[in-house]
């Protein structure tokens, strides 16, 4: 379970509270982390970093004792803090002779297939050039409220690990491990070494979000583990402040909690599963049984349509599956309950005769 000798591609997420000390970037810690990454590169591994901290750094530079709540001010803090953060990384990795690269991401980039593939290709190229890509949410231009799109970059790191087929995701946090109950409230709480499956009981152990400049918490880490699981990627959650945390993990030491994957979906299926749906199609029981048996979704089984979407968009099906639709919401409204032969009669012979094919339907809860 903890043999990472064959792990080629590793994503490391560093949380705000791990990066900072007394509300300022901890240069010594960043240098130590860079040194550990250098060792991984020397053994032929590829490393991608996902870093938090930009908003906190900007707020600190402006003399704020706590992060602002207004979205415009948070975006301004991100704009101020991001170059400060990257300057520290550039200095630390430069001392090791390692070139870094910066990639800023929004949820919209990952939701759209074309821009997602462009992002994937960019990261692949950067890794081939032996650089260490450092990713962060592009808070300055994100249309989502900051902190809701990815959740302190926990979710972003898992999505990145999924998109680039990483073998291992490491979450370096201020949390030692996943506990069987909240250790802040229960002194007898015990750390969990291995999570074979993320059950309802595991989800219930998640507490509230992080403190001060952090927006994440155990809930976002559990969500990250679920995303990584669908990619067949192992995930380790541990305290980034323990000595030589990265090296000890790679050497197989029992550090933190390891989450083991439950299934490995194909790349396209993972993109569908983790995309934000543009609308929802409600279907009857017959259609639901059909798609569970790996059959196409036909218009005869559609009961209602919510939202506005185009052909090729990702939509939800009864809130328990997602799919790439072959028809727009306007077209589907005209086809509700009708036989599939009506599709070509109404919209021409080139129109695909189903709502969604089995290969483009992914179940959320499996």
Structure at a glance:
With 366 residues, the protein is an alpha/beta fold. Helices cover 38% and strands 18% of the residues. The chain has two domains: 9-269, Acetylglutamate kinase-like (Carbamate kinase); 277-363, PUA domain (Archaeosine Trna-guanine Transglycosylase, Chain: A, domain 4), CATH 2.30.130.
Which key features would you list for this structure?
single chain, 366 residues, alpha/beta, Carbamate kinase, Archaeosine Trna-guanine Transglycosylase, Chain: A, domain 4, 2 domains, 5-stranded mixed beta sheet, 14 helices, 15 strands, 38% helix, 18% strand, globular
How would you describe this structure to a colleague?
It contains 14 helices and 15 strands. With 366 residues, the protein is of the alpha/beta class. It folds into two domains: 9-269, Carbamate kinase (3-Layer(aba) Sandwich); 277-363, PUA domain (Archaeosine Trna-guanine Transglycosylase, Chain: A, domain 4). It has an eight-stranded mixed beta sheet with strand order 5-6-4-1-7-9-10-8, sandwiched between helices. Helix 7 packs parallel to helix 9. The longest helix has 25 residues, at 71-95. The protein is globular. The relative contact order is 0.12.
């Amino acid at each position: 379970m903890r043999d990472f000798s064959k792990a080629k591609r590793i994503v490391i997420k560093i949380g705000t509270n791990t990066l900072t000390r007394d509300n300022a970037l901890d240069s010594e810690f960043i240098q130590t982390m860079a040194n550990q990454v250098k060792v991984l590169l020397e053994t032929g591994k590829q490393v991608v970093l996902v870093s938090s901290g930009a908003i906190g750094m900007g707020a600190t530079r402006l003399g704020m004792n706590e992060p602002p709540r207004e979205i415009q001010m948070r975006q301004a803090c991100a704009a101020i803090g991001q170059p400060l953060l990257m300057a520290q990384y550039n200095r630390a990795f430069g001392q090791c002779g390692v070139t870094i690269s910066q990639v800023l991401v929004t949820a919209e980039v990952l939701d759209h297939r074309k821009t997602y593939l462009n992002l994937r290709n960019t990261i692949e190229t950067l890794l081939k050039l032996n650089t260490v890509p450092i990713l962060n949410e592009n808070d300055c231009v994100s249309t989502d409220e900051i902190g809701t799109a990815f959740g302190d970059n926990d979710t972003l790191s898992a999505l990145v690990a999924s998109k680039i087929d990483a073998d291992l995701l490491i979450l370096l946090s201020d949390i030692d491990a996943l506990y069987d109950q909240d250790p802040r409230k229960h002194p007898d709480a015990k750390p969990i070494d291995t999570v074979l499956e993320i059950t309802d009981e595991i989800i219930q152990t998640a507490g509230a979000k992080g403190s001060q400049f952090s927006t994440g918490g155990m809930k976002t880490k559990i969500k990250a583990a679920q995303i990584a699981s669908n990619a067949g990627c192992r995930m380790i959650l541990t305290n980034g402040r323990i000595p030589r945390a990265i090296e000890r993990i790679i050497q197989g030491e029992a550090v933190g909690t390891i989450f083991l994957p439950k299934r490995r979906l194909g790349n396209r299926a993972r993109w569908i599963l983790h995309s934000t749906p543009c609308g929802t199609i409600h279907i009857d029981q017959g259609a639901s049984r059909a798609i569970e048996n790996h059959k196409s979704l036909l218009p005869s089984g559609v009961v209602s349509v919510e939202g506005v979407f185009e052909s090729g968009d990702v939509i939800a099906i009864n809130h328990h599956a997602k799919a790439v639709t072959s028809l727009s919401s306007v077209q589907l409204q005209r086809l509700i309950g009708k036989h599939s032969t009506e599709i070509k009669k109404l919209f021409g012979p080139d129109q695909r005769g189903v709502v969604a094919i089995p290969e483009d339907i992914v179940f959320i809860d499996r």
